[in-house]
Amino acid sequence: MRYVLQFQVNLFALAILAALFVFMHTSRIRTFSRQLIDWILISTAVAIIVEPLTWIFDGKQFRGAFLLEYGTNVVLFLIGPIIGGLLMSYVDYRMFHMTARLRKRIYYQHTSLLTLALMVVNLFVPLYFKVDVHTNSYSSGPLKVLHYILIGLIYLFFIGFVVTHHTMATRKEVLIYSIFFFIPIVGMLLQLLDSRLHLSWTSIVLALLVIYIFLESTPTDEDYLTKLYNRNSFDTHLHFLMQGSKPFGLVMFDLNAFKQINDEYGHAAGDAVLIGFAHALKYAFNTSGLAFRFGGDEFAVISTSSEIEQQVDRVRTYLQRHPNPHLKDLSFSYGYQRYEPGLTADTLTSLADHNMYEQKKAMKQG
User: Fold this and answer.
1) Residue range 21-31, pLDDT digits in tens
2) Angle 164-284-315 (CA atoms, 0-180°, nearest 5)?
């Protein structure tokens, strides 16, 4: 009962992991990012189970007690860098979507391999820890702090990685990745300050929940590909603004010759164009509007700004500076309609659409 009370946080975290594992596997859709989460989840569950065992076996006298005490501590030292490497692998895959890249980097398990080598050395020279063969009592070694330094280096590498490759992710994703790594660091530091606070592994459970909720579960108000708000969100937000008194307008966008890009260069190139144009809209209308993917190659922006022309120019500037040649040369049509009291949502959309197609027609004739 003493150990149940001492490790009740571990039991609670284990229950959350079990529920998350079951919930994840209710879907028949499998992705490699979810497989990585599975590996992190299982590794964390092992750590949560093994941690109290190291306390339970400490000082016990029965056949095999020494091997159990020594073995559980070896597992506990190894599991930390294993999880750190898997966390790093998850972020890498979310940014680059290349399993071959991860295999080449051995899933960032360099620190795990070094720790394994140090565990072999520890059998002969107790650098990390020692278990007395007579009393079966655990004691820390002179270089135990090296273990935490190595794990800390994984997190420092992560910070540099995200800063270097931040253009491969949205600002929302970068923020979530930061939280993803920050939570375990806080848990580890708190446990370093007080070993009775068993937060190193339970904090990873919280980080997994953050990742699954915000990245692996596609929000119902968001378009999966472009990460803009979707058509349903557009209808909801438009009706909300129409009930208020704040002035706003609707800008409809359509990509010219998008079908040609798809046909000549493939759907991957087309998807890159859609994603890049979505980033351009976010950049241009960041402070005064919300961007939506209306459907196909059509986009909409609900804006409270009166300087629409300047913001459209910012879209063009963003595209012209883009390294992707399809985006650099991308042409688009747009139509703007200011909301006037008495207009319905359908009428407002139709007017903005009409203005857009009028411009498209003029561009073809010109």
Assistant:
1) 998 888 766 78
2) 95
